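Researcher: Quick test of sequence recovery. Tokens follow.
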């Protein structure tokens, strides 16, 4: 990477960009983040993402991030980057340097913006259900935290078994989410996605899909995924990606008619409004 990065208000070369080795984002995963899509050099749904960053920080009892400064950092980085057809913006916000333990320090928070090109996802996804449940009652449920060890382990497990994404159930045995995606299924002709009380992240693409394409929030057992007529993943950088197979179970269609319509509507609506 040779595009400048933004660290605590300063735009600098990536080879010069550093944070303290005592930063609690590194030490104990005490931080939050957002991944934001950019299309032809312009960010998509930036307002929604920074609203969620603020909410995640609030839920972790972190000081409120300066979203105006972060917005300026995003624009500054994009101005230095090529106009990639598809890019990724990463905003990280941590509690800053602290002691060698869970207690937070008092030296101020760390805010970082990085941009890079994003390779398109495959046309369809094969997913692997992992044996570790999400804790829908945990302190970080629904928070986009930098504590991503569960996701890293789960995705490694899935890819070792031929999957492109890992799928979690929750402690109640219901379908929850992927490591970096939300999940929708078609059941009895109805488009469904797990409720936020399932422990899944309140995905920006999930919300836009519900607003633009319809569908209902409903908790369903994990088994419903294997029996689905259609299913798809949503995320910032994949938009809507049909699921071809769940473990060794191939779904009837990828995309099926409801998924194909959702993909078309999402593409049209997102192209018409870059900050919906």
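Model:
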């Amino acid at each position: 990477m040779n595009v400048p990065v933004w660290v605590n208000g300063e735009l600098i070369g990536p080879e010069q960009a550093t944070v303290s080795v005592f930063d609690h984002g590194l030490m104990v995963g005490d931080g939050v983040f957002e991944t934001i899509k950019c299309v032809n050099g312009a960010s998509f749904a930036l307002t929604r993402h920074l609203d969620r960053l603020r909410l995640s920080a609030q839920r972790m009892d972190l000081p409120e991030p300066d979203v105006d400064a972060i917005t300026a950092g995003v624009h500054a980085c994009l101005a230095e980057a090529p106009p990639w057809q598809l890019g990724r913006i990463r905003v990280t916000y941590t509690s800053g340097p602290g002691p060698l333990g869970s207690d937070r320090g008092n030296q101020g928070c760390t805010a970082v913006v990085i941009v890079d090109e994003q390779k398109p996802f495959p046309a369809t996804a094969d997913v692997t259900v992992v044996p570790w449940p999400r804790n829908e009652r945990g302190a970080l449920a629904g928070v986009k935290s930098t504590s991503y060890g569960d996701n890293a382990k789960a995705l490694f497990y899935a890819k070792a078994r031929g999957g492109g994404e890992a799928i979690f159930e929750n402690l109640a045995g219901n379908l929850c989410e992927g490591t970096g995606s939300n999940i929708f299924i078609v059941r009895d002709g109805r488009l469904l996605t797990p409720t936020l009380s399932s422990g899944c992240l309140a995905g920006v693409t999930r919300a836009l899909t519900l607003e633009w394409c319809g569908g209902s929030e409903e908790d369903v057992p994990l088994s419903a995924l294997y029996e689905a007529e259609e299913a798809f993943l949503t995320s910032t950088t994949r938009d809507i990606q049909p699921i071809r197979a769940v473990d060794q179970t191939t779904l009837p269609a990828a995309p099926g008619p409801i998924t194909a319509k959702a993909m078309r509507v999402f593409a049209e609506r997102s192209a018409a409004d870059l900050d919906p």
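The chain has a mean pLDDT of 97.
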